[in-house]
Amino acid sequence: MAARKIAADTPELRAQWGGWTFTDENREKADWHIKKYPEGRQKSAVMPLLDLAQRQVGAETQTQGWLPLPVIEYVADYLDMPIIRVLEVATFYTMYNLEPVGKFHVQVCGTTPCMLRGSDDLITACKKRGMKAGHVSDDGLWSFTEVECMGNCATAPMVQINDDNYEDLTAERLDAVLDALAEGKTPKTGTQEPGRHTSEPAGGPTSLKEMVEANHDYRGEW
């Protein structure tokens, strides 16, 4: 699992992030999220605001984004919440990065279905590129985390890289995805199995075949 410890609160960290605030655009988005909830319930917006903050930090650092402690404190102040309550959320959910990450955060699922389908080979492919847990690669491109199930068992093994999933992977297919990202390209997301569209059986559907090309109404046949 991803480490849930926060980056050390150092004078250098304070110097870099102590005056951090939302951009005008993100402040407008934050207020929009808050308005979804009844008066006095603004704390309910803590998760989307942390996500906004992480994405803004990512844009500012050209990485996938993370949450320095002063940024977490800013969100707490924005929502009039005790800092510890915001920390509890940030440290619980692995969608929030608590230490610096690379431009691409490669999260490899190592749970049983993915492991049985070859996730160990994917981890080896990542390590060959210098990726290791808790570190950013020397070129600043990669961070690596082995995670638990991300819900793509039918198309295992899979990885999540930033906001995108890549499924039906082999070491060679993962290398092709990573090469494309490193070159500034946008590789195909989802399944990497030729001829497969989503999570239908390999070789095509075996039932409800009329649904492949159109929204076929079966009700008269049942």
From TrEMBL:
Region (Disordered): 185-222
Annotated keywords: 2Fe-2S, Iron, Iron-sulfur, Metal-binding
Compositional bias segments (type: Basic and acidic residues): 210-222
Source superkingdom: Bacteria
Gene transcribed to yield this protein: nuoE
InterPro entries assigned: NuoE-like (IPR002023), NuoE_dom (IPR042128), NuoE_N (IPR041921), Thioredoxin-like_sf (IPR036249)
Protein known as: NADH-quinone oxidoreductase subunit NuoE
Family: Belongs to the complex I 24 kDa subunit family.
Keyword Iron: yes
Family matches, as Pfam families: 2Fe-2S_thioredx
Cofactor(s) recorded in Swiss-Prot or TrEMBL: [2Fe-2S] cluster
